[in-house]
Design goal:
The strands form two sheets. This protein has a six-stranded mixed beta sheet with strand order 6-7-8-3-9-10, sandwiched between helices. The protein is globular, with a radius of gyration of 18 Å. It contains seven helices and ten strands. 34% of the residues lie in helices and 30% in strands. It has 231 residues and is an alpha/beta fold.
Length: 231
Amino acid sequence: MSTVRVEDVTKEYDLGRTKVPALRGVSLAVEKGEFMAVAGPSGSGKSTLLNLIGCLDRPTSGRVLIGDQDVAVLGDDALSDLRARTIGFIFQTFNLIPVLSALENVEFPLLFRGGRHGGRARALEALESVGLKDFAAHRPDELSGGQRQRVAVARALVTDPSLVLADEPTANLDRANAGVVMACLAEAASARGAALLVATHEEELARDHGCRLVRVETRTEGATTHGVIAG
């Protein structure tokens, strides 16, 4: 069974009297332990697709299934619970809490879920897995951009999610640090058995780390442009 299935999904946004399509007729599946990269130009709908899969938005039509659960039928509380139990997020801008140390940032999702027992040890183990155990006491402003993103990766993995979503996680990094971050993600897919879905415009980097690559293309019909998965 696929960890994620997207079935003929369309997403439109209402702008006053105008409906603006972002995605149209998108289908894909991501398996447990698979590392998939979704590539495409800016404005093609990559972030929209991740938001739909991450239960941060709802499709206009079609279905998004996490496991065998159609997320469109869930209420807000059930969606929040599904996100907390199942999904780890990694953002382009890191989204670390500036007043907390690296270790405290990684531990935070465990505290949020009420799992205080053993949380510090699990957070330290997650930091060690991305090569930052010696930087546990450092605050984000004492870390490089690549180190901050590795902290963000550790934070996403510490709850052992079955699905990890990363939106342009290497966009603000130099080539060397981008490679380190992608290697950490690839290791998470192979060692932890998580399904990883990464939105990126760096196709070569994705191929270098064994990603299955799909492309979102922009197509124009009439006066509107939307994203579709390329064949």
